[in-house]
Amino acid sequence: MNESIKGAFNVLAPGATVPGALAFGLMVSGCVGPFSDDPRLGMNVSGDRLREIESMRLEPTKEPEEDAPAQAAPPPAEIELTLDACRALVLANNLDLAVELLSPTIARQSITEEQARFESMFFASHTLNKTDTPTDTSLSGSQTELQSNDLGVNVPLRTGGNLRVSLPTSRNKTDISFSTLNPSYTADLNVSLSHNLLRNAGTRTNSHGIRIAHYQSQSAQARAKLEVIRVIALTDREYWRLYAARQELEVRKQQHELALAQLDRAKRLLKAGSDAEVEVIRAESGVADGLEAIIVAENTLRDRERTLKRVLNKPGLVMSSPTVLIPTTPPDPVHYDLDPAALVQAAMAGRMELLELELQLAQDASTVDFQRNQKLPLATLDYTYTSNGLGSTYGGAFDVLGNYDFEDQRVAVRIEVPLGNEAAKSRLRRAILTRLQNSATKQQRRATIEQEVLNAVDQLEANWQRILANRQRAILAGRTLAAEQRQFGLGLRTSTDVLDAQARLADAQSAEARSLADYQIAQIDIAFATGTVLGVANIRWEPIEPQLDD
After folding, report:
1. Which helix H or strand E contains 165, and what residues bound it?
2. Cβ 84 vs Cβ 332: under 8 Å
3. Long-range contacts from 419-423, C-beta under 8 angstroms, 24+ separation
4. Residue 510: is it exposed, middle or buried by C-beta count within 10 angstroms (0-12/13-18/19+)?
5. Mean pLDDT throughout 200-207?
6. Are 333 and 467 in contact (CB under 8 A)?
7. Of 33-47, 117-131, 225-239, 453-467, which range is least confident?
8. Is the pLDDT of residue 518 over 80?
9. Beta partners for 164?
10. pLDDT digits (tens, 9 = 90+) for 43-61
């Protein structure tokens, strides 16, 4: 092994120690440090758990102890399930849905967050300032006490401006002997407006964030609906796959019973002296082959049951439980004459993937408009109006303020023009290119959906033809087996011929069961390709709204 690889997977011998210099170097390099166990760092996983790889040792089967403690009540041996019951269970308990149905609720919070940018803000402040400064003249005071207060509201405007209304007041006391009002009180009314004229001006530009959050919320709902359809389709598919697996097991058990019957016939003929011992050996080989087929079919059935249990997530029906699931809804092999063009049109209107792309294109259009606005110069209009009041008391100051005899007004215009403005141009070009890319993606998705619908229609028809062919094949295989058994009784056929006929019959019956299940699955695929679920029951989902403590 390469020395560097050996160093990377170094294992210390028992009793070995790390030299002090090396330990100090590790601490300085960050492997070991004074803050390695600091609880402020949050979750801290031990190095052994992250780096050591444990080994697993398989233990041989042990016989159960006679005095073993009593176990909890065992789960039911079997549960009969209809397709409708499976759908109800999956809608109530499926973990994938529990995850996805929270997404619309999360996305809706972004709308509220963006709308909150235009919430008015109340503000208030109080300041006390005392000074005691030596002075060399009596015209200025050495001691002053100033108390100032400010009270008002700040209103963001969706047109791109900000309105601020405030009522500042103050009390000023000084030791100046020439002061007419001591203490003096002021009360002012201040109204200021700052508004963008070009960049960030207009309701459409300033509502861009709200619009994007609204589109994203609808996209989250579209994805949630798609997930509901996907999970229901998955449940239906797994139900019919379980049906096919159970039918396969029944067929293999029947094949094994036929092999046992053939072994009995061969033994009787051997005992009567009408047949050779090799026929018994051949029959025993057929019985062994049947056992293997049963074992494989049982394992496949357990896999299908485990998959359906995981999808259903029914309380008390864990994947490791030995409970047997028995599907009781029989297949309905009815031939359908479908209109592919009408199904394609329905898919274009019903597929949530296309709706999500349309919402993305709407986001892109809003982003292009916003980035085009961001290219404009920054021009701002500021206007301030102040009415001043002064008096020996707060009441006198407010009386003067109410007369509006002393008023100030200020108007200012400020403009900023980037030289080159390449950053804004690049953002606009990127927004336009993104929209073109998503538009091409939509066309690509439409073509893919059309292909999916047409493939599903063809698969449905092919599976119907498979049902007819396999049904006829099973009938003929049954007649062939009966003929081979009669010929064997007359000594004209061997056990191998009979066993081959039994295998062909079992294969034909198994293929018929699979084609029935595949025909049901093909109907599910057509419904999924058009953005619907198979059946007559309407399904309406609602977002999960957990109760949170604000």
Report:
1. strand 161-166
2. no
3. 421/375
4. buried
5. 94
6. yes
7. 33-47
8. yes
9. 154, 192
10. 777 777 677 777 666 666 6
CB-based contacts of 265, cutoff 8 Å, min separation 6: 283, 485, 488, 489
Give CA–CA dist 183/391, Å, rounded: 9
Tell me: pLDDT of 14 over 50.
Answer: no
From the centroid of its chain, how far is CA 413? Answer: 49
Q: Who's near 127: CB < 8 A, 6+ residues apart?
A: 146, 147, 148, 149
DSSP state of 61: P
> What whole-number distance in Å separates Cα of residue 513 and Cα of residue 518?
9
For 126, the enclosing helix (H) or strand (E) is strand 121-132
109 or 179, higher pLDDT: 109
Amino acid, res. 277 = E
Joined tokens for residue 149 = 């207060």
**pLDDT, tens digit (0-9, with 9 covering 90-100), for 151-183:** 999 999 999 999 999 999 999 988 776 677 888
Confidence of residue 38 (pLDDT cuts 50, 70, 90): low
pLDDT at 362 over 80: yes
Residue 355 one-letter amino acid: L
Domains of the chain plus CATH, in order, are: 161-199+379-416 (2.20.200), 210-360+432-529 (1.20.1600.10)
Q: Is 108 helix (H, G, I), strand (E, B) or coil?
A: helix
Q: What percent of the chain has pLDDT over 90?
A: 51
Count of CB atoms situated within 10 Å of the CB of 273: 7
Query: Residue type at 302?
Result: R
* Residues counted in the chain: 550
**pTM for the model:** 0.77
CB 117, CB 110: distance < 8 Å: no
Q: Does residue 183 have a cis peptide bond before it, meaning omega lies within 30 degrees of 0?
A: yes
- Whether the Cβ atoms of residue 363 and residue 439 lie closer than 8 Å to each other: no
Q: Do residues 313 and 93 make contact, with C-beta atoms less than 8 angstroms apart?
A: yes
